[in-house]
Write a structure and sequence with these properties.
The protein has about 375 residues and is an all-alpha fold. The protein is about 85% helix and about 0% strand. The protein has 13 helices and no strands.
Length: about 375
């Protein structure tokens, strides 16, 4: 082994050791970096649109982040306003017990009309529920005291959370400005640039279909729910729209996990018209139309992905990685799918080239 080869091995080993050391000292921010990459990717279309208007990268990135912060601030104010109102209603123990007893009366009446021999169980259920409601307040107070201890633990990590938040904001800002340029430079340094270019051509529409189409559909479901609940006269329509948009992100759950119990509640308290209206509205406008019309039309503009792959990519990693699985899962599945499609595309091109060369007549 000559000196040049020894130098290459030593340099490679040094680079690997330094890279592992960098990963180790940055491990507290790995999840932050992953979320920053994900958010920057989602915000890139908005950033590109603003860039065409402002012609300035820094201004476009700042406007993009400002819009996101404004949306989250509005959502937070809506949630806090609803909590403030409901906590004010629950301050009295008698209010809690009266509300529980009134709801039980409605349930008993509903059961007596539609369930045979339900009356013999109604009195026993009433006593049990009343005892439960009397014991609920002390237990809630104990939970509040336990929550205060948890809040103390969270407060002790406030510095870490703030550091992660500011690092995430800065990463998203610089990824929006220089992310595309960095990818182009990295691609230029890699060998087999033509193959890498084909791979990226396959990867981009796959990620757009897995991330952008999925999230846009969930946001449209949330907006539709907020408008529909407002027209139906449901309390806190914007809050319910936010909840449904978040729940729609969860695989195997969907908006039905919100509007179905809501419709059942109004049916139990004998508001049949409103209950049926919520159920019909939810099935038609929050399930059938988004899943069968909106999502396919949006997906037509990107890569076609089998629904089973989409389901697995979002659902399976949640049970292994937690919330970050929503990002890592589709990224990994999409990467493998892009590798598979790139390989298929390369083989088809090679077969077409071989067939074309075989079809040429030999020149004498």
């Amino acid at each position: 082994m000559d000196s040049r080869m020894k130098f290459k091995w030593i340099a490679s080993a040094t680079i690997i050791c330094v890279a592992l050391a960098v990963i180790y000292v940055t491990k507290a921010f790995i999840i932050t970096i992953i979320w920053s990459l994900f958010v920057a990717y989602l915000l890139h279309p908005l950033y590109s649109y603003l860039l065409r208007i402002t012609k300035n990268k820094q201004v476009s990135a700042l406007l993009t982040l400002s819009l996101v912060f404004a949306i989250f601030l509005i959502c937070l104010l809506v949630v806090l306003n609803a909590l403030k109102t409901e906590v004010g209603l629950l301050e009295s123990h008698y209010t809690i017990q009266d509300t529980a007893n009134n709801f039980l009366i409605h349930v008993s009446g509903f059961a007596e009309r539609y369930v045979p021999d339900a009356s013999q169980y109604a009195e026993w259920a009433s006593r049990q529920f009343e005892d439960f409601s009397k014991d609920a307040v002390p237990k809630l107070l104990s939970l509040v005291s336990g929550a205060s201890g948890a809040l103390t633990g969270i407060a002790s990590k406030t510095v870490i959370y703030l550091a992660q938040f500011f690092v995430s904001v800065l990463l998203v800002y610089y990824l929006l400005i220089d992310g595309e340029n960095a990818i182009n430079k990295a691609t230029h340094l890699l060998p087999e640039r033509e193959l890498i270019s084909k791979f990226l051509d396959e990867l981009k529409p796959i990620y757009q279909s897995l991330f952008n189409v999925y999230l846009i559909t969930c946001l449209l479901i949330g907006v539709t729910a907020a408008i529909g609940f407002f027209l139906l006269g449901i309390s806190y329509p914007l809050l319910w729209g936010i909840i449904i948009a978040v729940v729609a992100l969860l695989p195997l759950v969907g908006a039905g996990a919100v509007y179905a119990p809501m419709a059942l509640y109004y049916l139990v308290i004998q508001e049949y018209t409103l209950g049926v209206a919520i159920l019909v509205f939810g099935i038609v406008f929050l399930t059938v139309i988004p899943e069968n019309i909106v999502r396919p039309r949006l997906a037509m503009q990107t890569a076609s992905i089998h629904p089973a792959i989409t389901l697995l990519s979002f659902a399976a990693p949640l049970f292994v990685l937690g919330a970050v699985g929503i990002v890592v899962g589709p990224a990994l599945y999409g990467f493998l799918l892009a590798v598979y499609r790139t390989n298929i595309r390369r083989r088809e091109e090679e077969e077409a080239s071989a067939a074309a060369s075989d079809g040429e007549e030999p020149v004498c």
